[in-house]
Amino acid sequence: MIITTTYHIEGKTISHYEGIVFGEVITGINVFKDLGAGIRNIVGGRSKSYEDELMVAREKALEEMEVRAKERGANAVVGTKMDYEVLGADNGMLMVTCSGTAVRLSDEPAYFG
């Protein structure tokens, strides 16, 4: 399935709009990752564990959005947007959401004239 941030796909025509679809993931950050990130915050540098957690959460949110698009009969999602939030009393939860418009593409060439 094509998932893109653009509103059209080169060489394809959108034949049907199937509605807005979402993918959401909320994940906890464990104490060992927090400890490592705290040290990085003091001495500088990147936090590989947080970066990995963010990457996994983003991929899961996109996968969830793709499943929901397929359930509507779509074969692509256009106009995809991502959002990230930190939640919880101690900011120990990471929320990643994505949304886009599920569409059905036809093989007819697109015309932008």
UniProtKB/TrEMBL annotation:
InterPro entries to which the protein is assigned, alphabetical: UPF0145_dom_sf, UPF0145_YbjQ-like
The protein's matches in Pfam families, at most eight in alphabetical order, are given as: YbjQ_1 (PF01906)
Q: Which domain of life does the UniProt lineage start with?
A: Bacteria
* Family the UniProt entry places it in: Belongs to the UPF0145 family.
Provide the protein name. UPF0145 protein Tpal_1299
Origin organism is: Trichococcus palustris
